[in-house]
Amino acid sequence: MQELPQSDDFKSIVLNNTPLIDVRAPIEFNKGAFKNCVNLPLMNDEERHLVGIKYKEHGNVEAIKLGHKLVKDEIKESRVKAWCDYKMQHPNALLYCFRGGQRSKISQEWMRESKIDITRLRGGYKAFRSYLMREIEESPKHFKPIIIGGRTGSGKTILLKDIKNSIDLEGLANHRGSSFGRKITPQPTQINFENALAYDLIQKLDYGFKELYFEDEGKYVGGVCIPKEFAEYLSSAPLIILETPESQRIEITFDEYVVQAQTSYKSHFEKNALQEWAKDIGEAMKRINRRLGLERYKVVCELFEDALNEQMKNNSLNLYKTWVKYLLNEYYDPMYDYQIEKNASRIVFRGNSEEILSYVKEKSSGI
């Protein structure tokens, strides 16, 4: 039989955002996969489990026999059709399984029987994943990081979107990076976060950027962790401080924590969206109870309850701004002041959004 095509040009896949067909079982896919991929499994979770048992007890030949017995006739036909349909819609799509071995090769062969040719990843998921992690580890050799810091609500994420040579770690993590930063949609798995970070780094560095801008983060963004050595590299980087008036910070935080959040909950919950949002805010306030102390925790809860009651009674959101102001003044700002005092020696510039953008443009003019 003619040798089926393989490729390990992983950099090209990243730079071209190449569509990928992942033929692993859903349980594998859900633990981690790549950007621009779709899960169209050769075997479902139960079939994979049964074949795995057969492999352990009777070896590879018997496992393959069982696999062909489980995936045949209408089942086989529907799965091949799904692969072929996707390839027709995405002509440059590639295919992979875990190690680039039997499952992806069988999928290739069945697609060829249907007159559709596709290339599989040499080494499969494991090889591509290793490539991406290696790129993260080696990336500090190729760029200088600059960190955007500032008080909560100062608009750091908004500013970052206006800097083309930036990487939005909060966006990749689907989290606002604070105690109240959880979104209604789940965060990616740790693996998916790392894979997305690698894609962003590879694409930005290939463009030729020698400096990359990041928002000031800790080791964790919500429940995902920035790779250790990469996080350490960022932790000593030069720091730019975004200075924003308190009134504007209140508006930005109010828009994120209340307006945008409630809109998101309404789109997610058919009923009781406001109650679900309020419950999650209550849980977030409990998480900061110890740092606030009993008296301030009591005040912040009362302010929130007053605002919630006002909304339910008069459909007005204005009282939430009082709650936001208290959170900023009594919780976030003291933490910020402590951190900025510790890192004062790293500060290279302070200014508002326009001044920082001018500073960045001047530094980047040689790119």
Automatic annotation (TrEMBL):
Listed InterPro entries: AAA_SelU (IPR058840), Rhodanese-like_dom (IPR001763), Rhodanese-like_dom_sf (IPR036873), SelU (IPR017582)
GO biological process, one term: tRNA wobble uridine modification
Alphabetized GO MF terms: tRNA 2-selenouridine synthase activity
Residues annotated as signal peptide: none
Protein keywords: Selenium
One Pfam short name: AAA_SelU
Domain annotation Rhodanese: ranges: 14-137
Record bears the keyword DNA repair: no
Protein name (Swiss-Prot/TrEMBL): tRNA 2-selenouridine(34) synthase MnmH
